[in-house]
């Protein structure tokens, strides 16, 4: 299976990056091909909503890292979103990538699996509600199938996350992909 992992933190060695690392380790061990797109370290401009793409077969007027990633995303069997929780939803860095799906919604829609990984400081039972709803809406719109979510709540920094079972759970989720 071709899997694209999109991360959304500017902490190269942060909490969500560790979940991404462990997921990728497991997925590769199970023989999957994994591409990683670290959105915070790529040039991804916000969607202009100019609708140029509508009359130009999905070509986006913005010339940046997304241009070469459209085909890779369209070609993926699975897309994995990995984000720190920012104000109860995904980070702006990863949201910018998703907004840019707009140019190729039709080509991206259908027959893909998806997963969501998130980390947060808070650990209330409602901490991930907003993010989860957003993710579910995106999948419903794109007709993608959720195959797993991992919410590492109560983990403000990597040192705390390392003391939990969440990294192992990320690895196991990667390993379990069929
Ligand atoms: C701008 C910003 C907004 C945040 N918003 C939330 C939040 O709404 N709820 C929460 O529990 N933690 C929040 N946090 C804490 C981060 O989600 C948490 O520290 C996370 O582990 C950081 O992940 P990273 O190391 O991968 O960047 C926020 C942190 C930042 C910098």
Automatic annotation (TrEMBL):
<keyword id="KW-0288">FMN</keyword>
<dbReference type="InterPro" id="IPR029039">
    <property type="entry name" value="Flavoprotein-like_sf"/>
</dbReference>
<dbReference type="Pfam" id="PF03358">
    <property type="entry name" value="FMN_red"/>
</dbReference>
<feature type="domain" description="NADPH-dependent FMN reductase-like">
    <location>
        <begin position="1"/>
        <end position="123"/>
    </location>
</feature>
<dbReference type="InterPro" id="IPR051796">
    <property type="entry name" value="ISF_SsuE-like"/>
</dbReference>
<dbReference type="GO" id="GO:0016491">
    <property type="term" value="F:oxidoreductase activity"/>
</dbReference>
<keyword id="KW-0285">Flavoprotein</keyword>
<protein>
    <submittedName>
        <fullName>NAD(P)H dehydrogenase (Quinone)</fullName>
    </submittedName>
</protein>
<dbReference type="InterPro" id="IPR005025">
    <property type="entry name" value="FMN_Rdtase-like_dom"/>
</dbReference>
């Amino acid at each position: 299976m071709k899997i694209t992992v999109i991360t959304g933190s500017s902490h190269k060695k942060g909490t969500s990056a560790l979940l991404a690392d462990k997921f990728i380790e497991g997925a590769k061990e199970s023989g999957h091909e994994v591409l990683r797109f670290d959105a915070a370290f790529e040039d991804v401009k916000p969607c202009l909503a100019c609708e140029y793409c509508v009359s130009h077969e999905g070509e986006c007027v913005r010339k940046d890292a997304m241009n070469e990633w459209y085909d890779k995303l369209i070609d993926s069997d699975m897309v994995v979103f990995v984000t720190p929780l920012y104000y109860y939803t995904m980070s702006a860095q990863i949201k910018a990538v998703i907004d840019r799906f707009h140019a190729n919604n039709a080509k991206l829609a259908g027959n893909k699996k998806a997963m969501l990984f998130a980390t947060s400081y808070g650990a209330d039972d409602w901490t991930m509600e907003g993010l989860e709803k957003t993710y579910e809406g995106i999948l419903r719109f794109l007709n993608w199938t959720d195959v797993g979510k991992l919410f590492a709540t109560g983990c403000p920094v990597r040192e705390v996350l390392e003391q939990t079972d969440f990294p192992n759970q990320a690895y196991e989720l990667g390993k379990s992909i069929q």
